[in-house]
């Protein structure tokens, strides 16, 4: 791509009356240069088994050819037609609750032979129709693909074969590694392998979920192989990964191994949804963007984000602009809304698009138009922003799954809560970071690596982390790290297993805190801000310096936070969940000592600063005000002198003081 993509999903099939030409004229007026079509409408494209009708698709493509609007074609495989479910009832996914009824999307078994037959046929038919249109710039494989809990008999048998291959048929080693002697779960022949749907063995349950994630990777790779046969050199292949959901995009997706699945793509894509109005913080835009950028260590596409969305997300004036440029600041090369128009029926009636139900120009459309003009004018400066971060957070699908099985007492704190606890603390202090996974080998690219709750991992991962610190890095691990091996079998070594030596500390007991605070290094925080939350490990130093003890009459001799010199580097262990105020102070002190603290970190949330280098080799700096109040910040000399202000929305720079209006921002070329 040589320009920023700005657009939306468009469904001519959903429109209440014919208005394609008017819609495209409105899009062009708004600066929209790309639409995504076709992924949602299999039943329109194949109304009967073997009967095809791509007239809606070709009508839109022909119009886009005339109007010079780019198109991304989605393979329409995530929502199956009713006739297919009627003809092959066992295509419907069987999960822990049984066979799912037809009606919703994404309720099929992605491994089913008949489903695959029909998928390949519709993809090939569609590709034959669209391959010669010059406006088609890329293809999206499926849509927010996951395994949908598939656990039918054929999936169970495939899992057994997967395990047998891993163990080369050695059933004794398998029984040992998974601890299957417990409660007589042992198997003495592969034919005895029971359904995993009812297992009480967390090791087996976690392995099955890992296998289910591998089905997603295989499915997307399989679709890529078909699309590849029709692909031109100037076209890309993408997919719109989504994330764990907590009323909005939130954390690591439990049902997809994003790094593995992204190998099917030439450019990673994502769907990012987030709170708005007074709850708009930019955290989800930043976290999900950093995660997607880190998949291929390159720029990515925002394929879906909200224009209006839920009623409670109807944005304040100026927020759409702030959000759009925030995506670019994380390295996105596109911003695309779901969707162009608000749908007039079915379950997403109140998930509103750019246009409301009257399909007329409105305040949202007018702000979209302003963004479109800015994107067009600044595309050469803002596209392909490259980011080099010296801090990283290591995440793991396997740790996430294991902590779902073995929850922190009370069930209040999840794996993603711990990841976001660390990430949000960095974000609010303008410490930019990458998201890395446990198979990352180039750890020396970073000065600081944070490891939140890495509950389950092979010993080789902890050896690499220990070596990273010994070579001069700063390693920061939290509670629930190193507890089990890759089979979710508790390690017999002192905890945190694999890291106790480099941490210079260990524990063998843990508890749920009641009226426990922190003493020692308290950073001048209040008593409420020093309260320990949800979980604590009773750590004993073995050479480490104790930065914080537990403030409790029975637990006061135990360490809550330790620091240890290891080789040329430093290791920190955080043994409990602290308040957000405390973790911010602690991470600030760690980052300062690691040499990553500068003027940007002196300016804290709600003013967010992001930087990168554009394709011309110039530094681009974004300064955002994520609040409904005016913010005024003092800038040092090196920041108050810029070569060019590229874009400003409610920003005033006088001498060394920058004033940002509510939800305002400025983009500078440094």
Automatic annotation (TrEMBL):
Assigned GO CC terms: beta-galactosidase complex
Annotated binding of substrate, by residue: 105, 143, 313
Keyword Membrane: no
GO molecular function, one term: beta-galactosidase activity
Name of the top EC class for this enzyme: hydrolase
Residues forming the catalytic site: 144, 304
Keyword Zinc belongs to the record: yes
Pfam families noted in UniProt: Glyco_hydro_42, Glyco_hydro_42M
Beta-galactosidase trimerisation domain location: 390-596
EC number: 3.2.1.23
Catalytic reaction equation(s): Hydrolysis of terminal non-reducing beta-D-galactose residues in beta-D-galactosides
Family: Belongs to the glycosyl hydrolase 42 family.
Protein name, UniProt field: Beta-galactosidase
Domain Glycoside hydrolase family 42 N-terminal: 10-377
């Amino acid at each position: 791509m040589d320009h920023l993509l700005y657009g939306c999903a468009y469904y001519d099939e959903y429109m209440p009356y014919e208005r394609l030409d008017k819609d495209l004229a409105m899009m062009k007026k708004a600066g929209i240069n790309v639409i995504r079509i076709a992924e949602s409408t299999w039943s329109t494209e194949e109304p009967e088994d073997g009967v095809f009708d791509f007239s809606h698709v070709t009508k839109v493509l022909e119009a886009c050819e005339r109007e010079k609007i780019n198109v991304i074609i989605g393979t329409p495989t995530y929502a199956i037609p009713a006739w297919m479910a009627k003809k092959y009832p066992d295509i419907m996914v069987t999960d822990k609750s049984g066979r799912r009824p037809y009606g919703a999307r994404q309720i099929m078994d992605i491994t089913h032979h008949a489903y695959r037959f029909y998928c390949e046929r519709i993809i090939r038919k569609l590709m034959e129709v669209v391959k010669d249109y010059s406006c088609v710039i890329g293809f999206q494989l499926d849509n927010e693909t996951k395994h949908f809990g598939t656990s039918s008999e054929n999936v169970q048998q495939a899992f057994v074969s997967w395990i047998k291959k891993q163990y080369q048929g050695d059933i004794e080693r398998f029984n040992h590694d998974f601890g299957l002697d417990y409660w007589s779960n042992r198997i003495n022949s592969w034919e005895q392998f029971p359904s995993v749907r009812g297992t009480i063995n967390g090791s087996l349950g976690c392995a099955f979920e890992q296998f289910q994630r591998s089905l997603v990777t295989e499915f997307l790779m399989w679709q890529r192989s078909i699309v590849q046969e029709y692909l031109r050199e100037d076209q890309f292949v993408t997919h719109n990964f989504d994330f764990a959901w907590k009323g909005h995009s939130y954390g690591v997706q439990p049902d997809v191994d994003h790094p593995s699945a992204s190998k099917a793509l030439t450019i990673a894509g994502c769907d990012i949804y987030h709170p708005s109005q007074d709850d708009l913080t930019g955290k989800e835009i930043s976290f999900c963007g950093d995660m997607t950028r880190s998949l291929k260590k390159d720029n990515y596409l925002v394929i879906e984000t909200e224009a209006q969305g839920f009623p409670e997300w109807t944005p304040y004036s100026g927020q759409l602009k702030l959000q759009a440029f925030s995506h670019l600041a994380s390295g996105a090369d596109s911003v695309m809304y779901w969707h162009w128009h608000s749908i007039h029926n079915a379950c997403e009636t109140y998930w509103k698009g750019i246009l409301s139900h009257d399909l007329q120009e409105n305040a949202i459309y007018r702000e979209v138009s302003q963004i479109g003009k800015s994107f067009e004018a600044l595309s050469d400066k803002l596209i392909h922003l490259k980011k080099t971060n010296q801090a990283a957070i290591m995440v793991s699908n396997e740790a996430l799954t294991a902590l779902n099985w073995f929850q922190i007492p009370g069930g209040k704190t999840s794996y993603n809560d711990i990841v976001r606890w660390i990430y949000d603390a960095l974000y609010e202090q303008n410490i930019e970071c990458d998201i890395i996974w446990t198979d990352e080998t180039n750890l020396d690219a970073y000065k600081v690596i944070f490891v939140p709750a890495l509950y389950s991992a092979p010993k080789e991962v902890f050896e690499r982390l220990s070596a990273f610190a010994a070579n001069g890095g700063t390693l920061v691990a939290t509670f629930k790290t190193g507890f089990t091996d890759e089979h979710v079998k508790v390690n017999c070594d002192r905890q945190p297993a694999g890291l106790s030596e480099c941490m210079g500390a260990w524990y063998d007991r843990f508890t749920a805190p009641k009226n426990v605070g922190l003493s020692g290094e308290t950073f001048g925080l209040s008593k409420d801000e020093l309260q320990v939350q949800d979980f604590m490990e009773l750590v004993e130093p073995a050479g480490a310096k104790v930065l914080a003890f537990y403030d409790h009459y029975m637990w006061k001799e135990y360490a809550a936070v330790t620091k240890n010199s290891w080789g040329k580097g430093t290791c920190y262990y955080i043994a409990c969940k602290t308040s957000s105020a405390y973790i911010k102070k602690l991470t600030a002190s760690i980052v300062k000592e690691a040499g990553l603290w500068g003027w940007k970190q002196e300016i804290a949330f709600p003013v967010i600063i992001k930087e990168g280098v554009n394709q011309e080799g110039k530094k681009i700096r974004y300064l955002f005000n994520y609040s409904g109040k005016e913010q005024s910040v003092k800038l040092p000399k090196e920041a108050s002198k810029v070569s060019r202000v590229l874009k400003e929305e409610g920003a005033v720079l006088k001498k060394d003081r920058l004033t940002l209006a509510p939800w305002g921002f400025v983009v500078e070329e440094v």
